[in-house]
Amino acid sequence: MKKSVFLLLVACFIFAGCQKKEDSAESAATDRRPAKLILTAIPDDNAENMREYFGLIAAQIEQVTGIPCEYVHVDNYAASVTALATGRAHLAWFGAVTTAQAYMQMRDALEVVAARDIDKEFIAYFIANADLNLEPIDNLAELAQLAQGQGWTFTFGSKSSTSSHLMPRSFFAEQSGKAPEAVFRTVAFSGSHDVVLQKVANGEFHLGALGQPPYDRAGEEIRARAPIVYTTPKFTNYSLSARADLGADLIGEIRSVLLNLHETPEGRQILDYLKAGKFVDADMSEWLGYVDLIESGVDIGG
Amino acid sequence: MILVALAAGAFVAAEWDFSALVEPELRAAALARMLAWAQTFAFPDLSGEFLRHCWALTLQTLSAATLGTALAVVAGFVLAMGSSRAVCVGEEDARGWRRNFPLRSPAAALCSLCRLVQDVLRAVPDFVWAVILVAMIGLGPLTGALALALNITGILAKVYSELWDSVEERDYEQVRALGVGRLNTFFYGIRPLAARSVQSFTLMRAECAIRNAAVIGAVGGGGLGADIWYQIQFGAWGKVTTLMIFTLALTLTADLAANFIRRQLRSDPNHPCAAKLRGTTGKLLPAYLGTGFVLGVVFWSLWFMGWGDNAPPGQQSRNYLQPALMLVTGESWRNLAFFERLLQPDFDLAALGWGGTHRSVELFADYGPLEFWKPAAWVAWDAQLDKWFVWRVIKSASVPLALAIVGTLVGVVGAIILTYAHSLAFQIEPSRFTGETPHLAVRAVRLVQLVLARFTGLVSRGVPEVMWAFLFIAFFGPGLLAGTIAIAIHSLGVLVRVFSETVDNIPYRRFEQSFAGSRLNCFGYVAAPICWRDWMTYSFFQFESNLRAGVVLGIVGVGGLGFFFTFNFEWFRFEKAGTYLLMIIALTVVTDRISRLLKLSRVGS
C-alpha cells in the first residue's frame, strides 16, 4: 500500500518534469500572436477612473489588433511589475521607477512602446497645507531650513512611485543635503497621488509631494487648500511597456494605436484624462538612468 | 509581574509619540477631524449606483473568502495531522525532556517540518502570497482567494494541531490499547474528542476571512476590503459609511449563519430548551441541514466565481476559475524562480568582518565588555551594532511586539469589563439562578445594556483592525498610537464575544450555589474565576494574531518590521526583504512554541 503511493508520487514528479521540458520548447517559439492581451497599470489614481480610461485604451487596442484586450486593475505596484515580468500580463502602464524595476527583472524581454509627451519633461510638486501660509520657494534647502524644529509632518505617495517619492526625495536630498526623515517629524507613504493631495488639504499632513497630472486634475477648491510651494526640475516618467515576446509586428500595431490616439474623439477623451497632448515614440534607453540610479543603491528611505 | 514587565518593555523599546494626545494644538486638530468624520459619517452615500456597486463587491468578497476558507479547511486539516504530536509522533509512553527534541525520530522530524510549514504560511503576509501567486496564475479574484487560503491554512493548521495535542492522552487510551495505527487512533480517538472546538474555531476563522478579505483587491479581484481601504484614505466618509454598513451586514450574516450551523451540528441535550423526545429523523436532520448549508454556500461560491455575474464594476464577467488550470503547467512553477532571491536573505556578514574586507562594526571600540554597568557603554554598543543590517532588522520587531502587547492588554481589560453587560446569563436570564423576579423596567434596562454591549462588540470586531488603523491614522497621524488603539478596539470586539460565550456556557447551578445577592459580585467572584483559564487561552491566541496584525499595520503606516519588509519587497530588493521575512517568521515561530510549551489550549474539561 505504502509502496504504491510512493510509486504514484514518483510517477507524478516524472510526469511534471517531462511537461516542464515540453513547455520550455514551446515558449521559445512564442513569436505568434497571443489569444488575448492583458493590460495592467500601477495604481496611481482611484480604481473607478483607471478602470474607465484604461478600459478605453484596451478597447482601442482590441479594435486595431483584433485581439481581445482586457484591463485588469491592481492595487499594488509590485503586483503589476510581477505580472508583466512573469508573463501574466502583456502590457503595463508603468512609472519610471516601475519601468526600471521591470527592466532589472526582464532586461531585453521588456520593450517600451510609447510615452506621453509630458513624460519626457515631467514635474512634481511639493504642496503645503494652506494654514501654514508658506510662500513659494525656489530651493528645497529653504524648505528644510523652514521646517527645522517645527515638527512638521510629510507624506509621499506610494513607495515605488517616481513623481511622488523617488524624484522628490532625491531633489530634496540633493538640494538640502539631508534626508527627509532627518527634517520632518514623520515621513509617511499614503499610497497614491490623490491621497497625498487629500491628506495635505485636510491637514493630516503639513506637507506632501505628488506628480503634476493628478494635481492638475483635482478640483479648484481642494487645490486652494493645498497650494504648491515648490516645483521640481524636469525628469522622465511614465511609459507604456510591453513584453518583447509579443513580437515586433504586434508591438508596432499597439504603438500605432497609441501614437494616433489624439486623432479620434475617444482617444482625446483618454488623453484629456492623462493630461497629455499626445503619445510619442520612446525607447528604453531613456529610462536607463533610473536603472543606474537604483542599482547604485541610492538612499530611498527603507 | 510578567505582564507589567512586558508592558514596560513595550513602552521603552519602541518609539512612542504621544504628542497627538499631549500637545493641545494637535489634540484640537485630532478632535476636529473626529468630529468632521462623525458628522459626515451620519450621511451614508445611498445612491442607487453606489449601492449596486457595493452589492457586487459584497458578493465578490463572499465568494472569494468562502472559497479561500473551504480550501484552507481541507489543507489545514491535512497539515495539522502532520504537525500534531499526538497524531504524527504519538509517544504516549515517553516522558521527560526528550519529548521536545525534534530529531529524536523520523516522525518527530516530520512533525517539526509540518510545524515550520504552517508557521511560514501564517507568518508571510497574505499580500505577499498574492504577489507570488500573480506570477503563477495571473491576476484575478482567484489569486486573492488562494492567497487567503494559504494564510488561513497556516492559522487553522496551528489551531487544529494544538487542539488535538491538548486532548488528554488517557481519554483515547482505549482506542490506542486496541493496537490500531496512528491514523485510526486519530480518526476514532482524538478527532471526535476535539471535534467541537475544531468546529467552532473553523467557523470563527471563516468569519474573520470574510471581513479581512482586503487582499483580493490588491491583485485585481475587487472586494469590499480594498474599496474601504481606498475610500478611507481619501476621506470619502459618505461612501465609507455605506461600505462599512455592507461589511457589517456581511459580518452579521456570517455570524448568524455560523450560529445556525453550530446549532444544527451540535445539539446540547442539557440545555433547558432542548427537546428531548425526537425520532431518528428529528435527530439526524439538523446535521444534514448544517452540512447541506455549508456545501450550498461553497458550491455557490464556486459557481459565482466561475459562471456568475462576477466582474468588477465596469467589466465583462468571465470564468475566474480557469487560471487554476495553470497550476498544472510547468511554466507557472518555473515562474516561482522570480522570487528565488527571497530565499537568500542578506545577513550583511561583511559588516561583522566575515567574508568581506570592509568591517564596519567595532563593538568594543569605546567600551570593553567589562564595562557593562555603564549606561553609556550600552548606548555606544547599540550605535555600533546599528551599522549591522541584521541588528536593525531585529530592532524593527519592537514595533509589532509593542503594538501586540499593549493592544492586547487594553483589549483584554476592556473585554472583561464589557463581558458583564454582554452576557446573556447576567442580563437576560439571571432569574434562573438569583430567584428574583425583576420589574419590567429593570428587565428593559438590562436588555438595553445587553443590546448596547452586543452592538459595541459587533462593530468593533466587524470592522477589521486595518480599517480601524486607517481611521485612527486619519485622526492622530501615523504611528504606534493609532495602531495600538486599532488593535485594542478590534481585540475587544473579538474577545468580548468568546469571553461571554464561556460565561454563558457555565451551568446556572454553579451560580445558584454561591449566589449572594449581587449579580456583579457573582460575576466577579464566581464567573470570572471559572472562566479565567479559558479567557487567558483566548487572550494568548489573540496576542498571537495581534502580533501578525502588528506586522500588517506596519505596512499601512504604523511603521516597524512590516513597513521595512514591504518597502524592500516593493523595491524588489528581495535579499533584504528576505531578512525581514525571516524575522517575521521567527516571531511567529517563537510565540507558537511558547504557546505549545505552556499548553494553553485544553479540550474536554
UniProtKB/TrEMBL annotation, chain A:
Q: Which domain of life is it from?
A: Bacteria
Under InterPro entries, the record lists: PhnD
**The keyword Signal is assigned to this record:** yes
Record's keyword terms, sorted = Signal
Q: Which PANTHER family match?
A: PHOSPHONATES-BINDING PERIPLASMIC PROTEIN (PTHR35841:SF1)
Task: Tell me which family the UniProt entry assigns to this protein.
Answer: Belongs to the phosphate/phosphite/phosphonate binding protein family.
Question: This protein is called what?
Answer: Phosphate/phosphite/phosphonate ABC transporter substrate-binding protein
* Organism encoding this protein: Geoalkalibacter halelectricus
From TrEMBL, chain B:
| Keyword Disulfide bond among record annotations | no
Q: Which InterPro entries match?
A: MetI-like, MetI-like_sf
How does it sit in the bilayer?
Multi-pass membrane protein
* The ABC transmembrane type-1 domain, residue ranges: 58-258
Q: Which CDD domains match?
A: TM_PBP2 (cd06261)
Has UniProt tagged this entry with the keyword Transmembrane?
Answer: yes
TM spans, by residue?
56-80, 127-150, 209-230, 236-258, 285-305, 397-420, 466-489, 546-565
Keywords of this entry: Cell membrane, Membrane, Transmembrane, Transmembrane helix, Transport
One Pfam family, please name it.
BPD_transp_1
Q: Where in the cell is it found?
A: Cell membrane
The UniProt entry lists the main location of this chain as membrane
Which family is annotated? Belongs to the binding-protein-dependent transport system permease family.
Name the UniProt record assigns to this protein: ABC transporter permease subunit
